[in-house]
Design a protein that fits this description.
The complex is a heterodimer of chains A (293) and B (278).
Chain A: H1 2-36, E1 39-41, E2 48-50, H2 54-61, H3 63-94, H4 101-108, H5 110-113, H6 116-126, H7 132-141, H8 154-178, H9 183-191, H10 196-207, H11 209-224, H12 228-234, H13 247-256, H14 261-292
Antiparallel strand pairs in A: 1-2
Helix pairs in contact in A: 2-14, 3-8, 3-11, 6-8, 6-12, 11-14, 13-14
Chain B: H1 2-37, H2 41-46, H3 58-65, H4 68-99, H5 105-115, H6 120-133, H7 141-146, H8 151-162, H9 166-174, H10 179-190, H11 192-208, H12 211-216, H13 225-237, H14 242-262, H15 264-277
Helix pairs in contact in B: 1-14, 3-14, 4-8, 4-11, 4-13, 9-10, 11-15, 13-14
Classes of the chains: A mainly alpha (293), B mainly alpha (278).
Organism (chain A): Neobacillus novalis
Main location (chain A): membrane
InterPro entries (chain A): ABC_transporter_permease (IPR051393), MetI-like (IPR000515), MetI-like_sf (IPR035906)
Chain lengths: 293, 278
């Protein structure tokens, strides 16, 4: 009995620092968020008035919300599939018993090391109106493309940037998964006369399913939260013409520019629900697919 | 047989070509930034050259004369301190969850699993209010304290300790060491690889973090490097002084790059450990 109490004491003293940090900086904010959603909060005066579901009504009537909604969904729909496929293909290439694979891996991993702010600045310079990409295109096709000031192109730059910097991370995740696939499966496929491409399609892809699962989930969660790149590229405005306004950027604007913390928290809650729902649905669909073969 | 070999060779050439193309594609933006950082502003504004006409250090001089060195020091101090605190607390918590049979252990574990699902945006604004109430706005403690533990790495350490040999600890306990003593003298030194992995990723996370500094810190002399870079870009962009901006961006990558070269194996192994956990 004494020993049991001793263990409880030990356990909680080991957990105490982590538990305190989680209590103050995660649980208290989460609980607080649940209340704030239903209030109009002014951070400057500290005034709070209960307004029920009014924050949510305002959000859904707001054209800026729908702009951020469309932008974020477009972004997720493009980035997640492309980055998953490129990462998987590169991992398969690196895993195909070649020399210098370690060297290739080291080079390819560099974008993942680079901070989002440095990466964004580098891409802003590449796609600037007198930057490299605009000049190359002008030389080749004779037309001047203005990537960063054209509302229909600027989100594409952010998509490219994100794919560029997250592919290496997921590539390494896939690579560790590839190393667990038994060699015998490939040998059996060879005996059946499968070529390399068929082997990739019929052995590698199905065997990697659990890893793909993880990569897609992490990709979804990360992409829905896109903030840094949009903020830096647009100088916090979400412009031109709201074309880089993402959910997170709009939450930030509501809270710290419009000073409407209640509505911002309500929007964050909407975003959380969307992330949760989409990840759940995608996982269900993928799992169903896996069962059907 | 000969045909197969020939095919194999062809395939190898395709594989190498693709990998080389992607490597060039990866390096190109960085090389272009390096070249830009050595050009003069006049050359950048005129455009049309790939290599600098005359290698100028003006960009680097301007950046080093700005507040950037202060931001580098700020980021280094905050990142090092945060990493140290994370290592001790995450590892202790992971160890307790794996190895100490205390009451409520399983409930705590599932609770942590649930908390990891909450996106940071939901807690961002209330967290700002908590930080403000604690009087931490515009101090580096706002970042250090709100980043002092990481549930993801608590899980990683738990997974690690589940497979950690028990006899080492038992011997230590027999020698009369307390649990805390055993942890710091025996367990921690034996968990080097997992701890190093954690260190590398926590450090990189803090070094590259953008949103928290943006929310919590407002005085330019207290800026973190990422935030400083953003303000640097704002100041020099309109005058097309991209040499200055690129010099700043490149300097910000150097520390992580050095750690990457030295501790390469921890960057690559880490991912399969976290993959199973998250």
């Amino acid at each position: 009995m004494g020993n049991k109490r001793y263990l409880n004491f030990q356990g909680y003293s080991f957990m105490m620092p982590a538990l305190l940090a989680i209590l103050f900086f995660t649980i208290v904010p989460v609980v607080y968020a649940f209340f704030m959603m239903f209030y109009k909060v002014d951070i400057l005066s500290g005034a709070r008035t209960f307004i029920g579901l009014d924050n949510f009504r305002k959000i859904f009537e707001d054209p800026k919300f729908w702009a951020s909604f469309t932008n974020t969904f477009r972004y997720v729909l493009v980035v997640v599939p492309i980055q998953t496929m490129i990462a998987m293909a590169l991992a398969a290439l690196l895993n195909s018993k070649i020399n210098f694979s370690r060297g290739f891996l080291m080079i390819m991993f560099i974008p993942t090391l680079t901070s989002s702010s440095a990466m964004t600045l580098i891409f802003m310079w590449l796609f600037n109106n007198n930057g490299l990409m605009a000049n190359v295109i002008e030389q080749l096709f004779g037309t001047k493309v203005e990537f960063l000031t054209n509302p229909s192109l600027v989100l594409t730059v952010i998509m490219a940037m994100n794919i560029f910097s997250t592919v290496p991370h997921f590539m390494v995740v896939f690579l560790s998964g590839l190393q667990d696939i038994p060699e015998s499966l490939y040998e059996a496929a060879s005996l059946d006369g499968a070529n390399s491409f068929k082997k990739f399609l019929h052995v590698t892809v199905p065997q990697l399913m659990p890893i793909t699962f993880y990569v897609i989930t992490m990709g979804l969660v990360g992409c829905f939260q896109i903030f840094d790149q949009a903020f830096i590229l647009s100088g916090g405005t979400g412009g031109p013409q709201n074309s880089t306004l993402t959910f997170s950027l709009y939450i930030y604007q509501l809270a710290f520019t419009s000073n409407d913390m209640g509505r911002a928290t309500a929007l964050a809650f909407v975003l959380g629900t969307i992330i949760f729902a989409v990840t759940y649905i995608v996982n269900k669909l993928l799992k169903a697919d896996e069962v059907n073969g | 047989m000969i045909r197969m070999k020939k095919n194999n060779k062809k395939l190898k050439i395709i594989v190498y070509t693709l990998l080389i193309i992607y490597s060039i594609f990866t390096l190109a933006p960085f090389l272009w930034s390096i070249l830009t950082s050595f050009k003069t502003t006049a050359e950048i504004a005129a455009g049309g050259t790939i290599f600098p006409e005359s290698w100028s250090l003006k960009g680097y001089e301007t950046v080093l004369a700005s507040q950037l060195p202060t931001w580098v020091v700020n980021s280094l101090l905050v990142a090092l301190l945060t990493t140290g605190i994370n290592l001790i607390f995450n590892t202790m918590a992971g160890y307790a969850l794996a190895r100490i049979d205390f009451k409520g252990r399983h409930v705590l574990f599932s609770m942590l699993l649930a908390l990891i699902m909450i996106p940071s945006q939901v807690t961002m604004i209330p967290l700002y209010i908590v930080v403000a109430k604690l009087g931490l706005v515009d101090t580096h403690w706002s970042i250090i304290l709100t980043t002092m533990i990481n549930i993801g790495y608590i899980f990683m350490m738990r997974q690690f300790f589940v497979n950690f040999p028990r006899d080492v600890e038992e011997a230590a306990t027999m020698d009369g060491l307390s649990k805390m003593g055993t942890f710091f003298r025996i367990v921690l030194p034996n968990a080097k690889a997992a701890v190093a992995t954690q260190a590398v990723f926590v450090f990189m996370g803090v070094w590259n973090e953008f949103m928290k500094p943006l929310l919590f810190i407002s005085s330019p002399d207290k800026y973190m490097l990422t935030q400083g870079l953003n303000s640097l870009a704002k100041a020099y962009k309109t005058a097309t002084q991209w040499d200055v901006i690129m010099a700043g961006a490149l300097i910000s990558i150097i520390p992580i790059f050095i750690i990457y070269i030295v501790l390469n194996k921890y960057f690559i192994t880490s991912n399969d450990q976290t993959a199973g956990v998250k």
